[in-house]
Request: fold
Amino acid sequence: MDPFSMHAGFLQLLCSIEEGFKDGSHSTAAEAGMPIVKYPRTVDPLWYEWDRKAQKCGLRHTVYAVNGDRYTGEWLDNLKHGKGTQTWKRTGAIYSGDWKCGRRDGYGTYSIPDPVTKEYKKVYAGWWKNDKMWGYGIKFYSDKEYYEGEWHAGKRDGWGRMYYQDGAIYEGQWSEDKPGGQGLFRLKNENRYEGSWKDGKKNGPGKFFYLDSGQLFEGFWVDDMPKCGTMIDFGRDEAPAPTQYPIPKVELADPDGVLEEAVARLSNTEE
Reply:
């Protein structure tokens, strides 16, 4: 067949198909004698659907981990998010509170079982961030020893009050889980230190009130040791166990002259 005849035949076929659509017969390509190209149907693997159904979002029943840990609560994008309770199988510890993107974040409580009675004892109640104690909270170290105050990245940091096992109390500033800054440390017998702290020890200017003997030491401290200062009577008449004799007053015969001499020496040194 020559090319002209083939072209004419193809045009005639297209016209017949168009006429079929106009008169409502809707002839198919197969009826019109045209070849049909069939494409294979795309079918997703079954695990696609199983994975979609397994994705956890919203409130769910208890979900068990491979190691035996379990969580009951809310999810988002397959992560713990919202309100929920986590139980660790190895330690038996329980956290109940807020979650964010799979981590403890918000307000919550952390408890552990007593090794003897098996009853749960609260260890921490307060705020969390990025799975660590962060913000204001209370942590119990024992029945008589606990801390209430501010936390930062799991450490005592900021203002806080610590109640110790022996009855002593520290109230003031904390840094890196230790007293740091200005604070008051009160012993069980009411004697107390007010002043500067660093690395958990008395460092810098401070006052120590010996209320049992009615004396006051004011001076400078280095690593819990007083290096220089003055000791005076302070409420000696009301003290429960005052010293036998009062501290005598030390007075200079010529205080103005001593001061002028000290200033002159200082000026000569600077020159």
About this structure: The longest strand covers residues 103-113. The helical segments are 3-22, 46-54, 255-270.
